[in-house]
Amino acid sequence: MNRLLKHREIFLALAILLVLVLVTIRFPRFAQPGNLLTIFNDSSILMMLALGQMTVILTRSIDLSMAANLALTGMIVAMTNAAFPGVPIPVLILGCIAVGGVLGAFNGVLVWKLNIPPIVVTLGTLTIYRGLIFVISRGAWVNAAQMSPDFVALQRGAFLGLPILSWFAIVVALLFWLLMTRTPLGRSLYAIGVNPTASVYTGIDVGRTKFLAFTIAGAVSGLAGYLWISRYVIASTEVASGYELTIIAACVIGGVSIAGGIGTVTGVLLGAIFLGVINNALPVINISPFWQMAISGSAILLAVILNARGERQKGRVILKKAEAA
Amino acid sequence: MTDTTTRHLPNRLDNPLRSSILSWESLLIAVAVVIFIINSFASPYFLNAYSLSDLTFNFTEKALIALAMALLIISGEIDLSVAAIIALASTLMGFALQFGADTPALVAIGIGTGIVCGAFNGFLVTGLKLPSIVVTIGTMSLFRGISFIILGDQSYKGYPASFAWFGQGYVYWVISFELVLFLVMAVLYYVLLHRTNFGRRVYAIGNNDIAAQFSGVRVARTKFILFCLTGVMSGIAAVLLTARLGSTRPSIAEGFELEAITMVVLGGVSILGGAGSILGVVLAALIVGLVTFGLGLLNVPGIVMTIFTGSLLIIVIALPILFRQWRNRRPA
């Protein structure tokens, strides 16, 4: 059992399975393939965002501004679409990724060049980005009637039986898997998290790598901005308010260590799916959605307790403070 | 007789005027004065006793939390769950009200909830040795989540007038109870941090908790107490806020944690721990209050104000760093 606990992904997959089985015993239709695909599709945006967040957390940083970035980019793309319905959707999507990337890079520059702690930087930009949404929209909403049919339809279409939104998540997940396991940048991200001082001596530019991590997280937030708005067909100042914590929750549940250096793409995907399963199961077993917040809070606490057990057994790091300096 | 007596060493430490001019607190005072002057010119309604009294309601509840949060951050920990503690404390007070609780009972429940929540955070961080940022993100969802379970989309109303006094009452003329309480607490926290052994230990832990442990400081117990203090202050803030608003919704005090942390960091407390002062935090609270109130008089919506507080947070931290980088580059 203890060995099993160390394998976070297996443990998490079993936990997801357990929830599925428990709910299915009472409501057999819950586990139908169609519903499972719906759950996957519902978790898609969270998966992508959590992968972006993992990139940042691996480097011992944190990005609290992702949800605000998503909402700001979403508002920009919605207003662009409302004003110029002729702009092709692929161009809009690339634009979203670029805008989100710039917003993320802004975090990155402050962390890289000025050495301001990431939590302070992103706390600041979180409020700034949120406020900017109100400024550019003057507090108004962009609703379904103002969006072009293509804008809304694209991600709802299906390809090989899967909604396009799910395909976005699959492609993004593959890209992240390649980044983490097959590129020098991926190795640097882990190296910095495990030991920043040693990384410097290995020739890794710690600041620059953190900057890239924030830019990647920003670009993902931007992409999620389009997907979110076209899915829920409303752009307002309040979009995804407080969602930054859900993103971090998915990471922590997925086994990403907040102290950096530990985390896998598979784990994060399972973390996001776990939250998706819970959210979908609650209404089925007739529990008020108001329970959702307390349940994900408990899941975070449980996950972090389990994470700490797994990490402590490694116990190699001595003189932690000296390394951090 | 030897040349050591004649050798002149510039003693930068021993220059009270220079160090007080360049200190963070004097910078904050300057900023506060500038914003005060701008405000008086920008709006004709700013400069009178009643406006200035209203101003204090703007920041006292968050500033009360910021006082305790400052100590916690100096010790190298953080508590993101403070606003959620307010929500839970307020909800439980409203819940008790339905069973006819009177004012002393309501206050006791509010503050008691704060202590219990703070102790829970403290236990998870010090007892189970978990990172405070994740723990308090978790308890943040948990505490507010419990409020949502109890209240759903409902709200509690009908608090007694004697209870409302805590949030709306005046001690003398335009001096509100909230302001007096804040000033008393500020003095208490000043003494606690800057004039007691406990305060020295907080700094020691923040600078190097391993060294502090080896010097005989009970690190875990001290941190536990700090979490409890933050919980108590959140409970007190819950009493004030609930009394002021006269109602409880589960979404009460949303975003307070960010504003309290902004005050602490703006006040010169290092987010990495080990440095900071209560005077700085009090000044920062005043600045945040002045900015938001001044903008409010100019009919700037609340959400736009957050741009200013967010920028203020980043700029005030970035400027000294940029200045240091520029100064270091010159001789080279």
List the topology elements.
The complex is a heterodimer of chains A (325) and B (332).
Chain A: H1 2-6, H2 8-26, H3 33-58, H4 66-83, H5 89-113, H6 118-137, E1 142-143, H7 149-153, E2 158-159, E3 162-163, H8 164-182, H9 184-194, H10 196-201, H11 206-232, E4 234-235, H12 243-253, H13 265-284, H14 292-312, H15 320-324
Helix pairs in contact in A: 2-13, 3-8, 3-9, 3-11, 3-12, 3-13, 4-5, 4-6, 4-11, 5-6, 5-11, 8-9, 9-11, 12-13, 12-14
Chain B: H1 3-6, H2 16-22, H3 24-42, H4 49-57, H5 60-74, H6 82-98, H7 103-127, H8 132-151, E1 156-157, H9 161-168, E2 170-172, E3 175-176, H10 177-194, H11 197-207, H12 209-214, H13 219-245, E4 247-248, H14 256-266, H15 278-297, H16 302-329
Antiparallel strand pairs in B: 1-4, 2-3
Helix pairs in contact in B: 3-15, 5-10, 5-11, 5-13, 5-14, 5-15, 6-7, 6-8, 6-13, 7-8, 7-13, 9-13, 10-11, 14-15, 14-16, 15-16
Number of helices of chain A: 15
Number of domains of chain A: 1
Q: Which topology of chain B does CATH recognise?
A: ABC transporter involved in vitamin B12 uptake, BtuC
Order of helices and strands of chain B: HHHHHHHHEHEEHHHHEHHH
Structural class of chain B: mainly alpha
Arithmetic mean pLDDT of chain A: 86
User: Which fold name corresponds to the CATH topology of chain A?
Assistant: ABC transporter involved in vitamin B12 uptake, BtuC
Indicate the radius of gyration of chain B in whole angstroms: 22 Å
Largest sheet of chain B: 2 strands, antiparallel
